[in-house]
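Please, structure for the following, as tokens.
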Amino acid sequence: MKRRDFIASGAAFTAGLVAQPATARAQAWPTREITIIVAVGPGSSADALARGVARIASRELNATVQVKNVLGGAGLTGFAELAASKPDGHTFGVVNVGGLLVFPHIMKVPYTWDSFSFLGGVAEGYYGIGIAVNSPIKTIEDLIAAGKSRRVTYSASAIMNGVAMIQLGNATGAKFQFVPASTQPEAVAQAVGGHVDVVVQTPPDLVPLIEGKQLRLLASATYNRWPNYPDVKTLKELGYDAATIVPLGFACSSGVPPAIRAKLEQVIAVAAKDPELMATMRSLTILPRALSGPEFRDAIQSQASTVEGILVAAGMKKT
């Protein structure tokens, strides 16, 4: 054997030895119970989605899969635990725009974007602009006109809710000011009581007040009409490229081996199209939206500058 052939053969043999442990780990995985971390309490939409994914992951991986609700720090504790989890593929969790786009600007966080590998998205929330029934503002055009003559205020329980309002203002020159609320009921109450001009929240928050004739739905603030109010148009349909997009999906710690991560990505892809989970989403008035890992990451990251701008304008940016 020629010397260069011997060297090439030796290099290939060595590479094979290096690759074997990783391959063996992927083939042996999972070796114990898999945990899905959810940074909110039981009964929430995110919790319901996680439990649906746990059911599907258990079936697809032939393993025990449990949901672990990690509360504290308005969700920060759960994100931190997920980022610090052992990178062996036995832990993944729900991640959202709050933990990735908001927390890093308002507090010190023990993680970065590079702490996570994004596995995929399964859903997207509906958002709408609600207004008190006795308000003189009757249409989105009225709202824009008001915003050009004065600063129009909107309440929301989360900064991300108002992305559509900021985009609408940027497109029209209207001035919209975010008024933070600690809870969903507080945000709605501010609009009902006339303390703010409008509120931007989800169907579970607004529908009871709409049905109770205390609020009207001016427009859907997503790219889809609400299923329970199909006659109310979206901002896009009204001629404004504005929408609050809040995808819900999953990630694991960034050190998980590629072969194992690929299996987790496949589980999320299957879950996103599972008929039972899709029925659960519809019952929660959540829009099913299947996204690959890179697509899910991009859907969140594309809103980074808008969210930072809202925080700055509201005087909430600290870091």
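The domain at 128-220 is CATH 3.40.190.10 (D-Maltodextrin-Binding Protein; domain 2). The chain has two domains: 32-124+246-313, 128-220.
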